[in-house]
Amino acid sequence: MSITESLNDLIPALKGTGRRRAIDKVEELRDENRRLLAKLVGVDDAFVLLHQELAEALAHQAEAEEIVVKQLAAIDNLTVHRDELLIEVTALKKRFGPELADEANATAIDVPPMARIGADQETVPQGIDVTTLWAARDAGLLGPVLDPGHVPDLGNEDTQPIPAP
Q1: Residue 71, Cα to own-chain centre: how many angstroms?
Q2: Contact 87, 94 (CB under 8 A)
Q3: Per-residue model confidence as pLDDT tens digits over 5-44
Q4: In 16-108, alpha helices (H)
Q5: What value, to the nearest 5°, has the Cα angle with vertex 32 and ends 25 and 49?
Q6: Are 151 and 161 in contact (CB under 8 A)?
Q7: pLDDT of residue 6
Q8: Largest CA distance in the chain
Q9: Which portions of the chain are predicted below pLDDT 50?
Q10: What whole-number distance in Å separates Cα of residue 22 and Cα of residue 43?
């Protein structure tokens, strides 16, 4: 008789008949152990992936910080240049201000007093009907819109209607 046969004879004796058989509990614990080990492997894989993503995020953050530093340096340089140009423009205005004023006065366009709109004059131009679209519609000034794609012929021979798609 071999050892495995003797163990096989012994196993039914160990199983027992009760609700809490020891051999069933051992199998349950082994199954649970396998499930927990499988979860542990999955968690380890997830941890490795998260660690890689963290490394990538830190690399992107470093690149972004480098770009921000370069942009801040560029902004500082442009601010200095702007300030220098502002000082130069102010000096040129001070130096050439009288000439600019003389030129503006020489090329000024005068409007005769009779053409100016005063407080007592009407501001609506003569001959132009300025009404809202709703008021024009209610007054019957708008024709019916039968074909929105039609371009009306205004007397030009080269005007063609827009073809429908």
Answers
A1: 21
A2: no
A3: 655 565 555 555 555 677 788 888 889 999 998 888 888 8
A4: 22-106
A5: 170
A6: yes
A7: 57
A8: 135
A9: none
A10: 31
